[in-house]
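May I ask you to comment on the folded chain given beneath this request?
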Amino acid sequence: MRKILFLVFLLLSLTQWCATAQDTIIYNTADKNISIGNKVFILNDTNSVLSIDEVIKSGKFIKSTQEVPNLEITKSTIWVRFTVSNATQNDDVVVELAYPTIDSVSFVSMNADNSYDVINTGEYIPYYKRAYKHQNYIFDLRLAPGESRTYYLRLNASEQLQVPLEVGTAKTILESTTSKDLIFGVYAGTILVMLFYNLFIFISVRDKNYLYYVAYILFVGMTQACVQGYGPRFLYPDSPYLANLMMVLMPVMVGVSALEFLRVFLQLKEYLPKLNKGIYVVEFFYLCIATLGFLGKYREAAQTVLGNAMLGSVYVVIIGSILSSRGNRTAKFFLLAWVIFLASVVVFVLRNFGVLPYNNFTLYALQIGSALEVVLLSFALADKISILRKEKEESQAQTLAAVQENARIVREQNVILEAKVAERTQELKESNDGLSKALVDLKEAEMQLVESEKMASLGQLTAGIAHEINNPINFVTSNVKPLKRDVDMMIQLLDQIEGISLSDDSAADKKKQIDELKEEYDFDYLKTEIDYLLNGINEGSSRTAEIVKGLRIFSRLDEDDLKRADLNEGLDSTLVIVNNQLDNRIEIVKNYGEIPPVECYPGKLNQVFLNIITNGLHAIKSKFKDEKGGKLTITTTSTDTHVIVGIADNGTGMDENTKKKLFEPFFTTKDVGEGTGLGLSIAYNTMVKHNGTINVNSTLGEGTEFIMEIPIVHEQKIA
C-alpha cells in the first residue's frame, strides 16, 4: 500500500514538474532572438479593475496558441504572463514588444521575495524617455545566467492589439530593430522619390492629376509611418493626442485623396457620372470617421475605418473594371495598381483578424503593396500623358488637314465672293446714303424736341417769374400815385409856410397861421400816409429783388463749370418758380437737413428738381382736382460721401409698367401737348453726369417718391 501511495505521489510531482517546465521559456541561444507568443499566458480583464496583486494570484490565465497573440480591437485591459529562464552566460537578456501603437504598457518584473518592480510606458510616453530609444517597447529582464523569473505585461489599446514578443540579448534585439528601420527606410525612400518626382512633373505640366496623386502618396507614406511608430518617434514625440489622432486621420486622408485622384484620373464625371456621385457617399463616411477621431473616439474610429476602406476599395475595383471593359487603357493601369494594393490590404486585414499568421510577409505586405501601387500609378500617369500627347498630335494633324481643305475652298470661293462683294458694296453704299439722311433727320427732330423741352421749361419759368414779380410790382405801382399826391401837398404846405415865415407878422401870429395850415392839410395824417406808402414801396422792391436773386440762383447762367452749391438753396429757388402752381391748395413740407455744399453743375441740378417737382404737382392736381389735401414733401440729408434729396408727393402714383419706362426718352403719361417725354430722361442723364443715382418708389393711388443721391465730391470718370 505504501508503495502504491509513493508511486502516485511521484507521478503527481513529475506531472507538476513537466507542466512547470513547459510554462518556462528557456532562453539558450544568445546569438539570435526567439519568439515567445505561443508560450505566454493571457488574462482578459474586461472591466479593467484588477490590481497587480489580484492578477498575480489569479488562476484565470489562458495559454496562447498563436505565434503572435491577436486580441483585435478591445476595450478590455489585457494581462500577459510569461516566465523566462536564462540558460546562457549573458546577463543582458531583454524582451521586445514590437507593436508601437499601444496606448498604455506596464511591465511588471517579479523578484525572488515576491515583490515586484513596475515600468510604465506606452504611446503616451515619448520614446526618448524610454530605456531603449525606439518606438518598440524593449525591457530588461535582469536575468543572471541560470536564473528564472516571471513577468507580466499590462496592455491597453484604442486600435488593433497584437502582441509580437521576442526574447534576446540587447545586441540581437537592437540588430533586429535596426533591420526593421532599414526596411522602412527603403520604403520611405521609395515614397519620397515618387512624391518629389510627381511633384516636379506637376510643377512642369500643371496637370491636377499629379497634384492629387502627390497628396495620395504623402498620406500613404504618413499612414505607414504612423502604423510602424515612426510618426510619433520623429514627427510629434511630445504629442500623445497627435499619436492617436493620426492613426485615424491618416487612413481617412488616404481614402479621400485616393477617391479624388480616381475621380480626376479616370474622368468619372464624364464617363461614369452616376458612379461618380457614389464616391461622395464613401467620402462622407470618411468624414464621420475623422470626426470621431477629433472627438477622441479612437477605438470606434479604428473599428469603422477598415470597413469603410474595404467598401471604398471594392467600389474603386468596380469602377476600374467597368472602364477597363470599355477599352480604357488608363483604367487598366489603374486597376492593376489598385488590385495589387488591395491584395496587400487584404493580407494586412486578415493578419489583424488572425486569419493569416504574423510573419515578415504579412508584416510588410502593406508597405510592399503601397510601394508597388505608387510606382505603377506613376507609370499610369506617364502613360496617360503619352496618350494625351498622341491624341494631341492626331488632333493637330486633323486640324492641319482641315485648314488646308478650308484654304482650298476659300481660294475657290474668293472669285465668287469678290463679285458678290462688289455688288453688295454698291447696295450698302446706297443704303448708307439713305441711313445718313435718316440720321440727319433724326438728329434734327431730336434737337427740335430738346429745344421744345427747353422752351417748355422756359415758358414755365417765365410764367412763374411773371406771376411772382407781378404782385410786388403792382404793390409798388399802386403806391406811387398816392405818394406823388401826398408829396405835392407837402410841397404846397412847405411853400405856404415859407411865405408866412418871411412876412412881418409877429412870431405868435406866424405860429398861429402855420398851425391853421397844418390843420387844413391834416399834416399828421399826411406824414403817416407818406411813411406807410414808402414802406410799401420798399417792401415791394425788396420782394422783387429776392425773386430776381432766386431766379439767378435757379438758372446759374454764369456758372457753366463745376461749382460748390447749397442744394437747399437751389430747392428754395425752384419752389419760387413753381409757386404759382400751388394755387394755395397744395402744402409744401420742407425737411431740410444740415448738408455740405456739393460739387456740381447747379443750374442742371435745379432743372432736375424743377422737372420732378412739376411732375409731382401735376400728379397731385390729377388726384385732388380743385380740392385741398395735396402735399409735396422735400427732404435733404447727407452721409459721409453723398447728399440725398427726396421729393415725395401724395398724387396718383404709378404702376410697375410705368416705372419701368419712366426714364425712357419721349415716354410720357400726360395728355398730348402737355409734355414732350424728355424731362425725366434729361434728369436721369444729368444724375449720371454727376455720378449720382435716381430711384423711384411709387404706389398706384398713393403717391411717388424720387430719391436722388449726389456725390459731395465730383470725380471725373475715365473713359
DSSP finds 17 helices and 20 strands in the chain. The first strand starts at residue 24 and ends at 27.
